[in-house]
């Protein structure tokens, strides 16, 4: 199974200050064969301007691809925040450049950011907040096709003022199976996002997702740390690889110009 990281952010994303070169050096030092930058673009995001200077992004990563071509494969990707109200702008943006790989992610719902300190979790039990998030993800996978992998299904478990933020597969089995069925039947990849992998409940959640994705005929899995800095939890990648293998996936999916390799 390839050693790679298919979800990382540098200073081309509004919420990262990391130099992409540092990501490359760190990845080489840890023996990765391939990385894919997946910078943020979210249309009309509340509070923060998540625009992306595409020309500058391509120029700089293209230079790194040349400089490190004998050491590591570097891909140019995108993490697209999906809000179906802006479907046409989103599609136009994705088609405007030759991205290697596109992650579809839900970061806000009806102009409310799914994040700490926002109104999203206000007056909601953890289960209500998680259900609302997953239903928004389901709507996206049912109505949007222009992407390769669906990002961080456990995103909602990162935030909210709950003593135990974790998410359980069995609590949302019907919705999650429907999401996985859509991804599998449309040839989309499921992302294993290692951001919360230090918690065993996260590992269990992804293990349940992967086993069911395989049963439903899912073929492609991508793996990413979602790291906004070069230093990261490398053990999480190894743990994730084991869970992916155990679920019956022999290889991680990689992409060029949005086509699976
Ligand atoms: Zn994200
Ligand atoms: Zn991300």
Overview of this protein structure:
By secondary structure, the protein is α/β, with parallel strands linked by helices. It has a single domain (4-260), classed as Metal-dependent hydrolases (TIM Barrel, Alpha-Beta Barrel), CATH 3.20.20. It is 36% helix and 18% strand. It contains 7 helices and 11 strands. It has helices spanning 20-29, 54-67, 87-95, 126-143, 173-185, 200-215, 234-246; strands spanning 4-8, 34-42, 73-81, 101-105, 108-109, 112-113, 149-150, 189-193, 220-224, 255-256, 259-260. It has a 7-stranded parallel beta sheet with strand order 1-2-3-4-7-8-9. A two-stranded antiparallel sheet has the order 5-6. Helix 3 links the parallel strand 3 and strand 4 (101-105). Helix 4 packs parallel to helix 5. The longest helix is centred in the middle third of the chain and has 18 residues, at 126-143. The two termini are 14 Å apart. Bound molecules: zinc ion (2 copies). One zinc ion (ZN) is lined by residues 7, 9, 79, 226. Residues 4-84 form the Polymerase/histidinol phosphatase N-terminal domain. This is Histidinol-phosphatase.
Give a quick rundown of the structure.
The protein has 261 residues and is of the alpha/beta class. The protein is built from 7 helices and 11 strands.
Topology as a string of helices (H) and strands (E): EHEHEHEEEHEHEHEHEE
- Tally of strands: 11
CATH H level, superfamily name: Metal-dependent hydrolases
Q: What is the share of helical residues? A: 25-40%
Rg from C-alpha positions?
17 Å
CATH architecture title: Alpha-Beta Barrel
Number of helices: 7
Low-confidence stretches: none
Q: CATH top level?
A: Alpha Beta
Shape: globular
How many domain regions? 1
User: What fraction of the residues are assigned to beta strands by DSSP?
Assistant: 15-25%
CATH topology: TIM Barrel
The largest sheet has its strands arranged as 1-2-3-4-7-8-9
Secondary-structure class:
alpha/beta
The biggest beta sheet, please? 7 strands, parallel
User: Which ligands appear in the coordinates?
Assistant: zinc ion
Family: Belongs to the PHP hydrolase family. HisK subfamily.
Pfam family, one: PHP
Pathway: Amino-acid biosynthesis; L-histidine biosynthesis; L-histidine from 5-phospho-alpha-D-ribose 1-diphosphate: step 8/9
InterPro entries: Histidinol_P_phosphatase_HisJ (IPR010140), PHP_dom (IPR004013), Pol/His_phosphatase_N (IPR003141), Pol/histidinol_Pase-like (IPR016195)
């Amino acid at each position: 199974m390839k050693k790679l990281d298919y979800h990382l952010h540098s200073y081309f994303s509004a919420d990262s200050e990391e130099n992409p070169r540092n990501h490359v050096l760190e990845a080489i030092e840890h023996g990765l064969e391939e990385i894919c930058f997946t910078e943020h673009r979210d249309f009309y995001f509340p509070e923060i301007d998540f625009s992306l200077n595409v020309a500058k992004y391509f120029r700089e990563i293209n230079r790194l691809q040349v400089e490190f071509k004998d050491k590591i494969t570097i891909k140019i990707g995108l993490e697209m925040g999906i809000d179906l109200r802006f479907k046409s702008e989103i599609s136009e943006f994705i088609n405007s450049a030759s991205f290697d790989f596109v992650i579809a992610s839900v970061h806000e719902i009806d102009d409310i950011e799914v994040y700490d300190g926002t109104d999203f979790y206000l007056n909601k039990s953890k289960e209500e907040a998680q259900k609302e998030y997953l239903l928004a993800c389901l709507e996206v996978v049912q109505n949007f096709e222009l992407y390769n992998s669906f990002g961080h299904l456990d995103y909602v478990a990162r935030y909210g003022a709950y003593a135990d933020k974790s998410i359980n597969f069995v609590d949302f089995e019907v919705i999650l199976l429907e999401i996985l069925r859509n991804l599998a039947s449309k040839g989309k990849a499921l992302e294993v996002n290692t951001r919360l992998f230090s918690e065993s409940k996260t590992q269990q959640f992804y293990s349940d997702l992967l086993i069911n994705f395989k049963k439903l005929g899912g073929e492609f899995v991508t793996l990413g740390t979602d790291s906004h800095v070069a230093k990261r939890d490398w053990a999480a990648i190894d743990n994730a690889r084991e869970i992916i293998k155990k679920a019956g996936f022999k290889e991680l999916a990689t992409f060029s110009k949005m086509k699976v390799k």
